[in-house]
Amino acid sequence: MSKEAILGAIRRGLKRGPLPADQRAMLEGRLASHPRHLIPARSQVSRPEQIALFIRNVEKEFGSVVRLPNFAAIPQAVADYLAAQNLPARFAMAPHPELKRIKWADHPMLEIETRQGQASDLVSLQHGFAGVAETGTLMLPSDPGRPTTLNLLPDTEMVVLRASRVVGAYEDAWDLLREERKDKLTGGFMPRNIMWVTGPSRSADIEQTLELGAHGPRQLHILLVDDDPAAKA
């Protein structure tokens, strides 16, 4: 069902016709302007401080981070992490161009399947779009190179994130996404799905007992690639 058909059904249910021209113009203007609300001061700091804040907040939420000098260091870092967690050297990888360009063949100990996630997957490797320093949160929009299933089905999720994509506030992450999408063939439409991931999945709904992996991965590991000279203290 198209968007117009859905909105038309809502109008009929409310017994209301299309909005008057002045109200429509006011709403469209507000949507186009992307007004900012109150932004926490803790995220409005220098680049090195933003990176440090992002890492602290990830770790505070039971995630882990390793900093890497470049993409070439990713395979060994992945192998080291899997070995340290006593996990098999096998994982499903997002078909993102940056991940596919890595020289995985030089590391035959790793078994990689480039595809969407499956219920039987123990480990996934995702490509991160942005990180938000104020809460240690990953922004993971869905697209062909970032299957959402890799964020939900495996027990352990690894995410590759460029240091240059760590921003201070959520509003900054939205700005990055809008800037990237405006040049896409999609006409600038937002992705079908955007996930905000802060640490492993967890819940304390039952007797206030924290349970990791309640609705997704039990472990979240971020491979932070230092491609941003301004982020280095």
Give keywords.
Rossmann fold; 21% strand; alpha/beta; six-stranded parallel sheet; 233 residues; four-stranded mixed sheet
Can you tell me about this structure?
The chain has 233 residues and is of the alpha/beta class. The chain has a single domain (9-231), classed as NagB/RpiA/CoA transferase-like (Rossmann fold). The chain has seven helices and twelve strands. It has helices at residues 3-14, 21-33, 47-60, 74-84, 97-100, 149-152, 170-181; strands at residues 64-68, 90-93, 111-114, 123-127, 130-132, 137-141, 156-162, 166-167, 194-197, 202-203, 211-212, 219-225. It has a six-stranded parallel β-sheet with strand order 1-12-7-4-2-3, with helices on both faces. β5 (130-132) and β6 form a beta hairpin. The chain is globular. 30% of the residues are buried. The model has no long low-confidence stretch (mean pLDDT 88).
> Tell me, what's the shape?
globular
User: Helical region count?
Assistant: 7
Question: Any idea what the radius of gyration is?
Answer: 20 Å
Q: Can you tell me the CATH topology?
A: Rossmann fold
What is shown here, in short?
Helix content is 30%, strand content 21%. It contains seven helices and twelve strands. The protein has helices at residues 3-14, 21-33, 47-60, 74-84, 97-100, 149-152, 170-181; strands at residues 64-68, 90-93, 111-114, 123-127, 130-132, 137-141, 156-162, 166-167, 194-197, 202-203, 211-212, 219-225.
Secondary-structure map:
Layout: H1 3-14, H2 21-33, H3 47-60, E1 64-68, H4 74-84, E2 90-93, H5 97-100, E3 111-114, E4 123-127, E5 130-132, E6 137-141, H6 149-152, E7 156-162, E8 166-167, H7 170-181, E9 194-197, E10 202-203, E11 211-212, E12 219-225
Parallel strand pairs: 1-12, 2-3, 2-4, 4-7, 5-8, 7-12
Antiparallel strand pairs: 5-6, 6-9, 10-11
